[in-house]
Design goal:
With 234 residues, this protein is mainly beta.
Length: 234
């Protein structure tokens, strides 16, 4: 009786071990991918791809490629200083970038299609208006009175952007604000009377995804700046 009981027990152990082996071999490795595309001031696109293994460590043995809307394909090498797969792409592309990641972590290549907008001269300098409350305009007056609130208005060919408006001198920033609108009002006396070399700058930003990689696993951003527009103050 003991002999039969031992045989049955060994058989059960063998079956349990067999099932355990089958389950463990069917579990595929997984990892996380985060992608950043940035074209600051319309110069180049900085592509970064972060690949994290299931143990939380960075993976540096994958094959990562990126293709722009003109079907130009570039390979991203792993950059130890950046801590990611990195590439500066010479010509920004408007449309979608396709990022492909091949790694033993994944059963098949992982493909991302990421939108990107190329901002170039999207704000017309000639259509920027800066007028104080009594109707003086920086374009029509040699200098105008900043003791009154100043309204700055501009036009852009691109919608749904974020703008940063900066009033500065060569030495310091006098006023800075971010907005989703195409007009702002600068409070009275923000710019001291008699200030020399005052400049207006408008920065435009168009972004997709999530900069914190919480709601999306990619972040795509492009920036355009008007440069410094000088005006005189009474």
């Amino acid at each position: 009786m003991k002999k039969y009981f031992l045989i049955i027990l060994l058989t059960i152990c063998f079956l349990l071990d067999f099932i355990s082996c089958r389950n463990s071999s069917s579990i595929s490795l997984s990892g996380d991918i985060r992608i950043s595309l940035a074209s600051p001031y319309n110069d180049k696109v900085e592509a970064k791809v972060y690949i994290e293994g299931p143990d939380g460590n960075i993976v540096n043995g994958a094959i990562v490629s990126i293709k722009d809307s003109a079907n130009t394909v570039s390979l991203l090498d792993y950059n130890f200083q950046q801590g990611c797969y990195y590439k500066l792409i010479d010509k920004p592309s408007d449309g979608f970038y396709t990022v492909v990641v091949k790694s033993r972590l994944f059963d098949s290549p992982v493909v991302y299609s990421i939108p990107h907008t190329y901002l170039e001269d999207s704000i017309d300098y000639k259509l920027i208006e800066m007028t104080n409350q009594i109707g003086q305009s920086y374009q029509k007056y040699d200098s105008f009175d900043t003791a009154y609130p100043i309204r700055v208005t501009w036009l852009s060919a691109m919608d749904e952007c974020t703008y940063k408006v900066i009033i500065r001198t060569p030495l310091k920033i006098l006023y800075e604000v971010s907005t989703n609108n195409k007009t702002i009002e600068i409070p009275a006396n923000t710019i001291p009377a008699g200030t020399s070399y005052v400049y207006l700058q408008i920065q435009q930003q168009k972004s997709y995804g999530d900069i914190l990689f919480e709601d999306a696993d990619y972040y795509s951003v492009s920036v355009f700046s008007t440069g410094n527009i000088s005006f005189n103050v009474q």
